[in-house]
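Weekend entry, working from home. Most of the wet-lab plans are on hold until the incubator is repaired, so I used the time to fold the two sequences that have been sitting in the queue since the last round of cloning. Logging both here for the record. First:
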Amino acid sequence: MNARNEPGPAGSDASARPPLVRELLLVAGLLLAYKAGRRLTAGHTAEARRNGHGVWDLERALHLPGEGAVQSLLLHGDGLAQLANTYYAVVHFPATAAFLVWLYVRRPVHYLWARRVLAAVTAAALVLHLVFPLAPPRMLAVTGLVDTARVYGPSVYGPPETDQLSNQFAAMPSLHFGWALMVAIGLTAAARSRWRWLWALHPLLTLLVIVGTANHFWLDALVAAALLAPALAVLRLPHGTTAGPRTRRGGVRARLVPAGRRVDEVPAGAVR
């Protein structure tokens, strides 16, 4: 019997994929705007340190575990501290970029959803950076924490007084953690592997790294999660979005339709 393949429904509909050049310009523009906005609070040193002491005191009042409990695990050897510093320095942007590229290519509908959520969370974080500059715990003697990047390397920051590339007083909220959490949620929603839940290890490891290296307080991560929650509630993934049923080889199952017959004339799920 002559037959032709009719692809089944697929959530990664190519028609949903936005133009590549437009997306590159949009993402680059958002990144530049964010970088410029962060620089606006770079000189608020005294206020950032006062806020840091306030956050430290609040954490103790809330009986949160001390950040030092995590850092002590890294200080058993130079290797662990260097590994954590490297993870902090090199994973954040590349992992998020790879996440968006994979979604753009394989799951365009999920890509649009994830890009909007990340943009919303980043914009909210920028506002918080402007109104609440915060020194990280590594800059505060009261915490008793070691600046692991300065002591063990590698470091992405220079002295705060001369650092012209970054704003070290934008610790609240932690976008390292917020973006990592969104990457895990997005990949869990978009992937179909039985192992997709292991992506939850990414934000967990990121949380331990940002706290253990004394770049963030626990509350920095909690606030990032608190910003992500309403963004996910408002910017919902379209209902019924799916990557399509899978065959044993992992491909999208196709329906074989006899030549000369319309798809709607064949019973759903029928295979000839």
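Second, folded right after the first finished:
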Amino acid sequence: MCSDRITDEKSVKMLTLFSEADTQKLAQQLAKLSLSGSVWLSGDLGAGKTTLTRYWLQALGHAGAVKSPTYTLVEPYSIEQKEGSAKPVYHADLYRLQDPEELSFIGFDEYLDEENALIIIEWASRADSYLPPPTMFIDMTHEVHNVDTNSEGNNSKENNKECRKVALQLSKAGQAQGVDLSVLNV
């Protein structure tokens, strides 16, 4: 069952998203973290990984459409920064990946080696033996929260309200970047 409990630590954070607006707010806060390296998004189909990524790219400054990389594996973005430089961001979806070695055929190593690049990877577990450790893990789960809709307390009626539980955890690489997850609050 979903709850409003939040664990505040610098390297681990648990959040509950009750709406798409909450997902957008989280994405805006993630954009302010100035992450580089890879972020591994995990969760079942429909958990909200692509929606979070779309809002994250928009919060970073991408103004165009955000395509799902389900069939292309990777969608590249070059996001102009305030000081005039461009931040390379890659959105990868490895759900359809048959063999992790396929990543070498498409030049995925170049994305990982690119300075200051952010690589957001859905379904990274399909290539975890190939990929270097990420900067951060984000695990999203879809849950149902029972909400009491009777304000008078008589004949309590419950409605099911969907929510997303989000667990964020920095790796040693993320901790070395000085990222602080305690600033995230939805």
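Plan for Monday: verify the second prediction. The mean pLDDT is 87.
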